[in-house]
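Subject: for your reference before the review

Hello V.,

The reviewers asked for a structural picture of the protein, and I figured it would be easier to keep everything in one thread rather than splitting it across files. Below is the amino acid sequence we used in the manuscript, unchanged from the supplementary table.
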Amino acid sequence: MKLGFPKETHPGELRAAIIPSVADRLVKKGAEVLIEKGLGESIQVADEAFAKTGAKLVDRAALLSESDIVLRIRKPDSDEIAKLKKNSIHISFLDPFNEKPLIEAFAASQISAISMEMIPRTTLAQKMDALSSQANLAGYVAVIVAAERSNKILPMMMTPAGTIKPAQVFIVGAGVAGLQAIATAKRLGARVTAFDTRPVVEEQVHSLGGKFLKIDLGETGQTKDGYAKALTDEQLKKQREGMAKACATADVVITTAQLFGRKAPVIITKDMVAGMQPGSVIVDLAVESGGNVEGAVAGKEVDVNGVKIIGLTNLPGRVAVNASQMYASNLVNLIESYWDKDAKEFKLNPEDEIIKGCLITHGGQVVNETIKNFYNKGAA
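And here is what came back from the structure prediction:
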């Protein structure tokens, strides 16, 4: 079975879907690994390092047309779908809720498409959960970026010239990215306060040394996959009122609130930004899905009356070496979990619990129930 790893072509994408150690694992399992020439350039891995594992270096056209499974990070351009081998498997982030034409093109081309965003958040699937592995790194990078942009240091310092107070960091959302941001900010010596609509995460915030901001929103909770549920307009109003004070005293605000498959909620309003101290920094981790901060612009840093609103995209790509290691590990764990040792091939079982959650198209149809229901609802 041929497993193909093409070079990422999305502007600014530095991550790679495979590293030599993972290629070696796959080759030893009996897979024929095809690597597009130059795939590792962005993470300083030469083609020779892949060749030493037994992987084959090929051009893009050959890789797409010959591979039984194509594995990558970003979704493909629509014109590449027709170049894929019929009845092959395509695995990557696909953003299926917002990419209906792309998903329908996969189905029309008889491609079985697996979306890495849709890997179930279960204990069994944890080692394959690329969404979490990349969010973890994004949380870390957000704090580092904020620390670099701020005009204050994060830790307390006692010096002959006097004592410098620690910076106040306020983190909105205590999911994977938020928890890593809390941990990183604490390691750098900041005082950290965090807020989440899910009371269940309060203990996790405390365990990392953060203070949990309590705001009575009434009934909230989380989905079966651990995502925060959407708030009502009244709950959002209460949340904003409760958070305004925390923002006003914060030197750094990091927002991580996202709703799976939906536009991110606006949490930090223009009025809240206006109430912040000049020199403060906001990092909006949700900017690519609509943004949590009014005034945030994807890919840019905006100055609003002295408050910097940072909307940098693809934060995991800023630590591309580690991001590639983690993503490649997620992919190989997925492949190995369904690898037939005797036949030396990946067995796609649409009825398997994990596969059922992340398989979007198969046999010329959209088969994922969540996505089908979403599309049908939109059509209605």
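For the response letter, the relevant points are probably these. The chain has two domains: 2-128+320-371, 137-318. The mean pLDDT is 94.

Happy to draft the paragraph if you're swamped.

O.
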